[in-house]
Amino acid sequence: MNEPQRFRTLFLSDIHLGTRGCQAEMLIDFLREHDADRIYLVGDIFDGWRLKKGWYWPQTHNDVVQKLLRKARKGTEIIYIPGNHDEVMRSYLGSHFGGIDVRDRDIHETADGTRYLVIHGDQFDMVVRNAKWLAHIGDWAYTAALWFNGWFNRVKRLWGGQYWSLSRWLKLKVKQAVNFIGAFEEALAAEARRSRVDGVICGHIHHAAIKSQAGIRYVNTGDWVESCTAIAETETGEMVLIDWVEIARARRRAKLIDLRAAKAGKPAKVKPRAA
């Protein structure tokens, strides 16, 4: 087995352990192939909203937790910044559990001296702040979309198709969703400016990005429900977006090419690896 690809820092958020939409198996594969000196868990790691309504915790979800704890035991610094779905952890700010520090927010300095505010971001979502009942309705609709998406992709796989995210597509196509994402990015950039840092790293909206927002470096980790993305800091301080779905898709294509080449008696091509 190959050694894990090592980064200076990894940022993960919106895993939503405890829900059927959580892509725990893909995350386990990702954690198996990646390591870092420091890992930030940027909120909504487990979903207390859903777990209150009904317990769902398969072995793969437990395996994710064990994988992270194992990394902590081996010396990885892990910082847990709670979000709105795991807000119960905000009662334990400043605590230390099994090698994991719980903080409301943090300032991360990269290898090249860039300073980032690390925060989940729900504090700047007006729906969550001012109309929590509406946020719960939105969560129900989102869960329904994920349920439909799961069945759609099961049928699609029977015909040899690849994974497609309905909710991700809707967010990119519906004007109100696009406007919400833009307003969220502006609010987080403003908070970074108030905090006198160079950028912000957040989660919450399940929309991965690395971009400049009004002179502030805006970084969003994405999620492990739809897009399966993470942000990694290299040893030189560069921030890179890892799209694990695209990497898995490329590997499947490469494997298919290899199988066809083997049948034709041709040499196999080199398999793609993670960024």
UniProtKB/TrEMBL annotation:
<keyword id="KW-0479">Metal-binding</keyword>
<keyword id="KW-0472">Membrane</keyword>
<keyword id="KW-1003">Cell membrane</keyword>
<keyword id="KW-0464">Manganese</keyword>
<dbReference type="InterPro" id="IPR043461">
    <property type="entry name" value="LpxH-like"/>
</dbReference>
<feature type="domain" description="Calcineurin-like phosphoesterase">
    <location>
        <begin position="7"/>
        <end position="207"/>
    </location>
</feature>
<dbReference type="InterPro" id="IPR029052">
    <property type="entry name" value="Metallo-depent_PP-like"/>
</dbReference>
<dbReference type="Pfam" id="PF00149">
    <property type="entry name" value="Metallophos"/>
</dbReference>
<protein>
    <submittedName>
        <fullName>UDP-2,3-diacylglucosamine diphosphatase</fullName>
    </submittedName>
</protein>
<dbReference type="GO" id="GO:0009245">
    <property type="term" value="P:lipid A biosynthetic process"/>
</dbReference>
<dbReference type="GO" id="GO:0016020">
    <property type="term" value="C:membrane"/>
</dbReference>
<dbReference type="InterPro" id="IPR004843">
    <property type="entry name" value="Calcineurin-like_PHP"/>
</dbReference>
<dbReference type="GO" id="GO:0046872">
    <property type="term" value="F:metal ion binding"/>
</dbReference>
<keyword id="KW-0997">Cell inner membrane</keyword>
<dbReference type="GO" id="GO:0008758">
    <property type="term" value="F:UDP-2,3-diacylglucosamine hydrolase activity"/>
</dbReference>
